[in-house]
Amino acid sequence: MSVHEKIRFVRLAKGWTQEYLAEKLEMSVNGYGDLERGKNDIKLSKLKQLSELFGVELSELFGTNEKATFNLIIGDSNQALTFQSFTFENSELKHTVEKQQIRNDDKDKEIALLKRIIELMETKNTEQ
Fold first, then answer.
1. What is the pTM of this model?
2. Taken in order 58, 9, 4, 42, is the CA torsion positive or negative?
3. Where are the domains of the chain?
């Protein structure tokens, strides 16, 4: 798994957007997106920032084999920190990310549909 794939995985695991990390790294959103897609080389200073933001050792973002293990702390000040350990292979990661993207797309479609239903109901109530 490449460095940019690991960065994307950790960002998604944390539930962060590209916009959020671009802001934290003082980069444009497009520049950060290119970084995750592997279109740009990543400066060591940015890798250090990312490892600190992610709460992982810098060395965990590197690796030459197909398996990788991440130790992440996920949580916020309103909940107890949860320690999660991820072990995966490249194909498993892609599959998991694709499933999550499909779920997110479905959720967005359902929200849009429910908003439309509410609008129609409000319009009907106002007409009566």
1. 0.50
2. negative
3. 3-127
CATH code of domain 3-127: 1.10.260.40
Sequence-ordered list of residues with C-beta below 8 angstroms from that of 4, at least 6 positions apart, any chain: 35, 36, 37, 38, 42
Tell me which residue of 38, 32, 37, 40 sits closest to 16, measured CA to CA: 32
Tell me the per-residue pLDDT of 60-102, one tens digit each, with 9 for 90 and over: 777 544 444 555 555 554 444 444 444 545 566 777 788 888 8
Q: Pairing between strand 82-89 and 67-74? A: antiparallel
Cα distance between residue 93 and residue 51, in whole Å: 19
Torsion of CA 106, 39, 94, 47, to 10 degrees: -100
